[in-house]
Amino acid sequence: MRGVDWEVVIGMEVHVQPRTRSKMFCGCAIAELNAPPNTHVCEVCLGLPGVLPVPNQAAVEACLKTALALNCEIPRHTKFDRKNYMYPDLPKGYQISQYDLPMSINGRLELGERRVRIRRVHLEEDTGKLVHAGDKLHRAWESYVDLNRAGVPLMEIVSEPDLRSADEARDYAVELQTLLRTIGASTADMERGQLRAEPNISIRRAGSDELGVKTELKNINSFRALHRAINFEVERQKEVLESGGAVVQETRGWSEAEQRTFSQRSKEFAEDYRYFPEPDIPPLELDRAWIEELRAALPELPSLRRSRLAGQLPVGLANAIGADRELADLYESAVAKGAPALATANWIVNEVAPTGKLTSGANLAELIRLVDGGAITRDQAREAYLESADTGRTPAEIVTEHGYTQVSDESELRVLAEAVIDANPKATADFRAGKKQALQALMADLRKRAPHANPKAANEVLAKLLG
Amino acid sequence: MPLTRDQVRHVATLARLGLEPGDEEFYADQLSGILGHIDRLQRLDTEDIPPTAQVVEVASRLRDDEPRPCLTQAEALANAPAAVDGFFRVPAIQEEA
Predict the structure, then answer these.
(1) For chain B, which residues make up each domain, given as ranges?
(2) Global pTM value
(3) Prediction ipTM score
(4) pLDDT tens digits, A168-201
(5) CATH code of the region B5-42
(6) Closest Cα of chain B to A42: distance in Å?
(7) CB A372: neighbour CB atoms within 10 A?
(8) Beta strand A215-218 with A142-146: parallel, antiparallel or unpaired?
């Protein structure tokens, strides 16, 4: 089998916590990650006898918006089902999920040239959290259960096996995150477990139509880990098959510390979950007018916005700004106020994105005019921007108040440059002896003495005096 | 079609039910009777009847996303056979042997 060309086949299951204040079927508030254990639980999410779960409207709405943004069909009838399995993080002995009548089906997500079909987007509830403790020597292990997370809403977004590489799988997850944030369905923070990507991976001989045996990867906490875990798993499967073995269908965990996947448990067959309709929740008949309202209220989706931005900006800038709705809104409103596109985009990527501080489009347009016109230095502009974002005051006011100004006048700069040359005889001599880097030391001293100096003009004056 | 003893054992394992000697035949008989009755129902002509998962004729209501008070930690743990530091304590569950 050596020398065979393999094709990688990946489908993605992505669990997303929709933005809600309370749990999926009860009124318990969503706990912060560091909340004390079992402080956000009630009779319903503890699975005590005689309670009735009632679905959360905001979770249903977030799921519908996500489904609509992914071009899914919303069937007329949908219902919840019980998925039965025994595990201590599941207090009821079953998870309320959706089986044969999910909230939505048959969608798609475009990733450049690649169209990824979405099989379904459905709603379910999260499980609790297990903490394992004990010592290996005495084999005295026990587990502790925190049910704060039990019953937290989750959307599950299932794709068809349409992805062909770790790069595509990562791009898919990133695009989903952007989409979910754009439509306000979720904050989708991977580190906080609000977006969990579980790739299903198999390989097959290039040209074959049959799917190979797949493994499912869990414990992936970042886009980088997703990429690495898939590449590791693909290589592992190649080695197994090329040495004459067979891939076992199973769930494997990604170990960030060891940078490898390891076997967790053999996949239970679907019928082992003994799904049956949840008797405590009547079927949902979703109001079609409500669905159409949600569809009409969707904002412009990231792929469309990116292609519009790509008409005005280099592709890297268009993608960076198009990936974040707030940045894209800021960019477009500043440009609408007359700010030049390229300078505005660069400012947003370099100065706004890293700080996460936003001001109005009008304020940003004014600021860009001040920097571009040479009235203030870039450092001053940065200060003025942050102050404007914090206080809402206009950059012009702030600049006037602080007396920010940029010295570009050649005679003033010449006096400064002469002082710097006098104070740095060694650097001056080095420069004149041909060490061009010495100019940087002189410039640094000049800017320390006169932060208001226009760096470009000062550089020219200094070079002229030295030359 | 009657259930086999293996099927009964499998279902009991999934449900964490302990079976005594002789239980497998006993439950295989009983469960086969129930399945036989379902098979009879399957033969009814239901062509023009919409499928349903519920006998009550109501569509589900949704709940407003308003947090309500939960139980205290002490109340939540009050019925637990074992608890430690605010957690339920259970026998060891190991992800990897």
Answers:
(1) 5-42
(2) 0.80
(3) 0.84
(4) 999 999 999 999 999 999 999 999 999 999 999 9
(5) 1.10.20
(6) 5
(7) 14
(8) unpaired
